[in-house]
Specification:
Layout (H helix, E strand, L loop, with lengths): L2 E3 L6 E3 L1 E4 L10 H13 L4 E3 L8 H10 L8 E6 L15 H15 L4 E6 L8 H13 L3 E6 L4 H14 L3 E4 L14 H8 L2 E4 L30 H5 L5 H8 L1 H8 L3 H10 L4 E6 L5 H7 L8 H11 L19
Parallel strand pairs: 3-4, 3-10, 4-5, 5-6, 6-7, 7-8, 8-9, 9-10
Antiparallel strand pairs: 1-2
Helix pairs in contact: 1-2, 2-3, 3-4, 4-5, 5-6
Amino acid sequence: MEFRYLGNSGFKVSEITFGNWLTHGSQVENDVATQCVRAALDAGISTFDTADVYANTAAETVLGEALKSERRESLEIFTKVYGPTGPKGKNDLGLSRKHIMESINGSLRRLQTDYVDLYQAHRYDYETPLEETMQAFADIVRQGKALYIGVSEWTAKQLRDGHALSRELGFQLISNQPQYSMLWRVIEAEVVPASEELGVSQIVWSPMAQGVLSGKYLPGQPAPEGSRATDEKGGARMIERWMRDDVLSGVQELKPIAEEAGLSMPQLAVAWVLQNPNVASAIVGASRPEQIADSVAAAGVKLEPEVLKKIDDAIGSLAERDPAQTKSPAKREA
């Protein structure tokens, strides 16, 4: 495993982060989820990402239980706040001071820890003054409940505004968690340049484009039974944008490129996002323990310029690059 600094800080994370978004507390049984966490630890992963909204808090509980016997100082545990949780009442979502302060306490209880290494605003909240949100984060840092603060899916302007306030309030905003893959490159035009300027790193999710870049989905053929594309609990909805024959055909062109590089298709996808120097870590998930080793092999891989060009030629116009696609949920109705 290789490690990288997160943002303009002295905090290191593993190049591969284990995330439990669509799996723990929902798609897989708790004992299998724990086996996946153990496999991640055995593979050298020390960084774990979750959120209170995942499986309506159940994912945090599963992760906390799986990690409770580990030396806390050897782990980097991330969680997030924004989405609706609990009974989903009027104050059970967003980035108000009330929701943030109550949510951090709930997350720490479920994760069985006194602090999280990184606490992230899961989306931008148009309903709450940014000053209120950032003051709440500052207080959480001063209370020792979070060591660093990050965000997820914020635009370049939102990052600049949040970063300026964090400096005024005396804490570090060091990371952004966007979607990023060969097929989803919307951060490259604006978010990455702004982040480089501010000293903010990317912790990217879905580097395999919901599994499409694994190559297991073939054009003109039904999705394999038990795959994410057949999961009616949410996976199918997330992946449907890529389930077009032109995209699936383009992905198949990556197979010989991966073979030439001595990598599996998933390894090529994860290694590709790690070539971006602004990316500190790539989040991978697993529904089976054996899936972990394949992803971890992408750590430390150097793709030569000619390989990167072949990838661009294969994907071409299939990739989404519009920076306007970086967005948070619209303003809520009163």
